[in-house]
Amino acid sequence: MGKWRYGVILDAGSSGTRVHIYRWLNSDKARAKASDDQLHALPVLETDKKWTKKIHPGISTFGKSPNEVGPDHLEELLTHALKHVPLEDVPNTPLFLLATAGMRLLPSSERNAVLRQVCDFTRKTTKFQLPDCDLHIQVIPGETEGLYGWIAANYLLGGFDTPEEHDHGKGHHTYGFLDMGGASAQIAFAPNATESEKHANDLTLVRMRTIGGDAMEHRVFVTTWLDFGVNRARERYVEALLEASPGELELPDPCLPSGIKVTKHGKPVGSDTHGEHGKEPMLIGTGRFTECVHQTYPLLRKEEKCVDEPCLINGQHVPAIDFDVNHFVGVSEYWHTTHQIFEKGYKDKAYDFATYQKRVQEFCSKSWADIERGVKKEKWGHKVDEKTALEVCFKASWIINMLHDGIGVPRIGLEKLPPSTNTTKTVIRSAKKKGFLDPFQAVNKINDIEVSWTLGKMVLYAASEIPPPASSKDVLAVGFGSNLPGIPADFQRPGGSYLPYHGKDDDDDLFSENPRRIPSFLVLVLILFVVGFLLCGRDRRKAAGHKILHMFGRGGGRHSNLRRRRGFAGKLFGLGSTPSYERVLESGEGADDFELGSIDSSSDNENSDSSEGSRIGRTSGWATPQIKAGLADPTTPNFFENGRDVVAQGSVLGLGLGPNAIERGGLMARTDSRERLSGGRRSRTGSPSRLRSAMTSLKEISD
């Protein structure tokens, strides 16, 4: 087993499935290289933007045809994963498919059928590690999705590894997490000490393990709101409009730009059509954003009975949020709706309610004709198409309602914020640049790394592979469950286990641990061969060429084409139809023009900080075989790796191929043959023009 461990996660969402690949050092290898600070930090994971791929639609669309989910959906994703995981590591690489809100809405019979087909297809067509389908292929609850997202956000921000640098006051150093997709929304945060004690039974215990083997525990509140994703909220909104005006075929919609007409499913209607032959109602945009915010407020269902106080929305219990210490980051729709439409002018600015509402109000008051022209001119960035522009007014109103009237985030720019305490000036300056000391900040990436709940899942898995210290007596498992001492009955383990490292400690071995990469020793031999071949002279190259062509001629069969073979070989070995004359290397003349250039070795990237594959974690920097039914032999060599490429340097003289290695007799024989071919004259150095020039010079001297 190599020093790198790999993991593959398929995020099966409501609109599509995205494959993520992560890698980290084997725990023994990581511990051997770790400093004292790193021993108290979580494992360092790496990824690369090339390792991620998304396809549409989601696997929930295969509910009626589960047998098609493998060849029509999974095959492309698994093939992509096999391109980037070294072939010899595939059997030791865990694969997870974790489905979210889209699959939660399917009937149980359809959901189970799709999951069975996912497991069967993956096992039949790949050798990825899949020991337990109930653990590796499942629909995860929204609470689990939110918990993984909370882990990912704090992992990237550094809230786990360096708590002293993230002191928000009152002994609090982690960040809250908000996520919104198409069908559901999640919240996860660690309440302040008072609320944690008051609502201890509502918290989830999360236990991880540092590289040194020490346990790291956190207690987090997490909940999910199904039907509160932005697409489901829009569907509920349209249903309310239809119920409020039964029988009407034209319904004014303040959440659409003025002048646009759409069906109840959101598809634009042409000027010459009226729904489905005039029978289906359609929505007519009026472009009144303030009214849109007012009409979407009831979708929060604030009036629902709260059984367990306090509650935020839909009657669901949430401990009181102390915005003095709870600073939230929002991802997915929170980011896209607050930033994407203003990509050119708003991308890097922290969210504040007053500025955002002003910009949305200005955009949504435009006519649809003006918006269409702006989209064509890429006024709001190349990512904003007509569909995005059509939906953004409703989405913005929903985000504003969820954040401020639902969750209770203070309206920055309108409401006065409570002062933060016990926070160093350095941390304030650093965090304010990114907005992370504000009550809410929308993010897509942290230090160029996408904030995805899949990262949180894999951090937990990597931590579970680290063994506890040998001196530990009471060892508690890595995972999460009810906030109870020991290992509660509902405790969920991530699935990893300790794997000792048996590889070589010498990273500079000439032969890379991954056979996908050509060993540097062979590269060196090839270079030396080419140089030696060039130094051996034209006649010997001719002789070698004739032998090779003769060999090819024998094996080529009746239909072999000598002219075609000589097209390349003739150029390489000097066998062209027209004789050419070149300088003969005598007594080392010209030999000094041939030398080996230096070849730099590249880093193995264990602790690099490059944008394509650098590490992530404490320092917050990140760092194909085709899939077929009946997998090919996994021992087939695979030429790819992101590790170290070590190329030894050498010289011609070092291998006895310098000028003195060519016999003088051979040089004279070649010189004589050249003189015979040219009518007794030597090529170039003994050419008539040079002889005449020499004679003229002698005559001038004598005169």
TrEMBL record:
One Pfam family in the UniProt entry: GDA1_CD39
This protein's name: Nucleoside diphosphatase
Transmembrane segments: 518-537
Binding site for ATP: G182, A183, S184, A185, Q186
Compositional bias ranges of the Low complexity kind: 597-614
Alphabetized InterPro entries for the sequence: GDA1_CD39_NTPase
UniProt GO MF annotations: ATP binding; GDP phosphatase activity; ribonucleoside triphosphate phosphatase activity; UDP phosphatase activity
GO cellular component: Golgi apparatus; membrane
Active-site annotation: E145
Record keyword Nucleotide-binding present: yes
Biological process according to GO: CTP metabolic process; UDP catabolic process
Keywords (A to Z) from UniProt: ATP-binding, Hydrolase, Membrane, Nucleotide-binding, Transmembrane, Transmembrane helix
Keyword Membrane among UniProt keywords: yes
Family: Belongs to the GDA1/CD39 NTPase family.
